[in-house]
């Protein structure tokens, strides 16, 4: 396998199989804007997360379980796959060795008609929205269907299996045949998205408040936006929600004002011998006042020198954009 640095550098040169659902707005984990940030070098790809490490470790087990279940042998294929005309790339999990053969590839030339994708899946996803069908079918979440179709487009393999381990206690295999119509759709969307956003260096529209703040961290002085019907309705709804929150917070405080004196210095509250609440102090912590520490260390210098040194190490922190609702929107 390539090193982490070279792997991430390669990922910036095209849209990978796991990126496709994201650029189409179908991924539960990433957005088009996040993919754009990564492909244009404005952010680093997520690395080293527990879920990613778990997936890497489990991949080998899933591949071996697939081989044991099906009687088919599998082979790693470490080279980066790249479409000859479209900026579509991919690193596949395994190739399946054809019956009677010893290898599935030679000098990067693929000599099999079947590939394998290995997944470690949350057990709860089995009962969610009917995304997963019965074993042996091709009914899987759309992000995985798109990924498999992309790998078939890259390899030319007519068949592809997806082996999934659900919650470390249920193993299933799903099977796919090439779908030329789906592949054409993916290639068209990948090519268009790459040209419109990456090559043109134009970001796709943010989809969350966090992404919008990242995209536009500062306001344009004097710029006025005429509210659309949708914006106006959302602002009114936000004002109503804020009013409801304030009312609930006032109710919460009133209950605490009546409850805390009754609890006095008790550590635990019980009811019929069962603990129903605790009122313990958190562990003590320490916080260093670095400004006072610096002033004490500079105490022997005259005030001008102190100010000069402190200014040298002062860091300007940009003010965050804050949405403040006009009083005309406030609900009383």
Brief sketch in words of this structure:
By secondary structure, the chain is α+β, with helices and mostly antiparallel strands.
Report on the architecture of this protein.
This protein is α+β, with helices and mostly antiparallel strands and 332 residues long. The protein folds into 2 domains: 4-206, Alpha-Beta Complex (Lambda Exonuclease, Chain A); 229-283 and 324-329, no CATH class. 41% of the residues lie in helices and 14% in strands. The protein is built from 10 helices and 11 strands. The strands form 4 sheets. A 5-stranded mixed sheet has the order 1-4-7-8-9, sandwiched between helices. Strands 2-3 form a two-stranded antiparallel ribbon. A two-stranded antiparallel ribbon has the order 5-6. Helix 5 packs across helix 6 (180-199). The longest helix is centred in the last third of the chain and has 35 residues, at 229-263. The chain is extended. The chain starts with a helix and ends in a 19-residue tail after the last helix. The mean pLDDT is 91.
